[in-house]
Specification:
The complex is a heterodimer of chains A (88) and B (268). In chain A, 47% of the residues lie in helices and 16% in strands. By secondary structure, chain A is an alpha+beta fold. Chain A starts with a helix and ends in an 11-residue tail after the last strand. Chain B has an 8-stranded mixed β-sheet with strand order 3-4-2-5-1-6-7-8, sandwiched between helices. The chains are: A alpha+beta (88), B alpha/beta (268).
């Protein structure tokens, strides 16, 4: 299905690129022993804890696992709404 | 003399560990090094056939460990190179017949008389792998440019680090430059980026490797073969030399092949 969509959208991607992208994700999961649903759960809990202290925009939170050499790095990008406003 | 132990491992089976072991051992011995190759794949002996020494086996490594013979008696001298030896694996036993400390003991007994001990690890991450890396000073991880082999290589690189035998170095075996050029095979750069590891060798896919294995004559002895040259380069890098990698565009093309033939015909 994704192949079909890719072709439809004219994205005739080289199979080596697909291999590389798929491997990058698989290796992160292998190395951290963390699935994408576990990462989602982590994200929800993080939002909950941080929201107790600062006003953040939960819809704009971006959490991802990055590769830095043979180390994995958890990167959290959490936009803050500024000091809590009381009413309008 | 104090030998260094190089363990050849991979995780995934069938990527060419035994071929690399036989060729690295042969190439090192061709460079006037004293070398012992050890087949640590107990129960699935193969290094003997790849080196063409299967008819000379009397004793094996388990016989040494269990005291049925002296270490010297289990060492088979190569047909061609006088300073190359093989210690074969036992064929009718399993991995539990050897322990990591047995491997360390056998290697230590050899260290004073040889320059290099090359250990061929079995596939997998269990006992056989642990036996093979226990004596290692250097670990070379072999992979092919395909997803399953690269994934397993990553696992093994992590385990080598965890055993404090790292950093492992990588051999990319059976690279098809033409497929890489078409974008249908992971390139060296892709693999290095994914695995974040130093590369010690890139071996091009070469039909002659199969032919040489059929004959029991390691391809590193073939002056005209590109794969043979790649294996010889791994040996030279192992000795600390800086050797450039074989370039994409001087591989395979008719004119570069012609050039190589002319050069080798001219006698270097």
């Amino acid at each position: 299905m994704t192949d079909f969509l890719d072709r439809l959208l004219g994205k005739n991607r080289k199979s080596a690129n697909q291999a590389k992208e798929r491997l990058a994700l698989v290796l992160i999961h292998d190395r951290t022993n963390m699935t994408s649903s576990a990462l989602e759960a982590l994200k929800d809990e993080l939002i909950e804890v941080i929201s107790r202290h600062i006003d953040i925009d939960p819809t704009a939170v971006n959490i991802e696992m990055n590769q830095d050499g043979r180390q994995q790095r958890l990167i959290a990008d959490i936009p803050i709404r500024g000091p809590k406003r009381r009413g309008r | 003399m104090a030998a260094k132990v190089v363990t050849i491992t991979s995780g995934k089976g069938g990527v060419g560990k035994t071929t690399v072991t036989a060729n690295l051992g042969t190439a090192l011995a061709s460079l006037n090094q004293k070398v012992v190759c050890i087949d640590a794949d107990i129960g699935l002996r193969n290094l003997d056939v790849v080196m063409g020494l299967e008819n000379r086996i009397v004793y094996d490594i388990v016989d040494v460990i269990e005291g049925r013979c002296r270490l010297r008696q289990a060492m088979i001298r190569d047909k061609r190179l006088p300073d190359l030896y093989l210690i074969p694996a036992a064929q009718k036993r399993d991995k539990t017949a050897v322990t990591p400390s047995d491997m360390i003991r056998v290697c230590n007994e050899l260290r004073s008389e040889y320059d290099w001990i090359v250990v061929d690890s079995p596939a997998g991450i269990e006992r056989g792998f642990r036996n093979a890396i226990a004596p290692a000073d250097l670990v070379y991880v072999i992979t092919n440019p395909e997803v399953s082999a690269v994934r397993d290589a990553d696992r093994i690189i992590g385990l080598v680090e965890a055993e404090e035998k790292g950093p492992a170095r990588l051999v990319i075996n059976r690279l098809n430059y033409e497929m890489v050029r078409r974008g249908d095979m992971l390139s060296t750069e892709d693999i290095v980026e994914l695995l974040a590891i130093e590369v010690i060798g890139i071996v091009p896919e070469d039909d002659r490797v199969v032919v040489s294995t059929n004959r029991g004559v390691p391809i590193s002895l073939d002056e005209k073969s590109l794969a043979g040259e790649a294996f010889r380069n791994i040996a030279r890098r192992t000795l600390g030399e800086t050797v450039p990698f074989i370039e994409l565009d001087n591989q395979g093309g008719f004119f570069s092949r012609l050039g190589r033939l002319l050069r080798s015909g001219g006698g270097e």
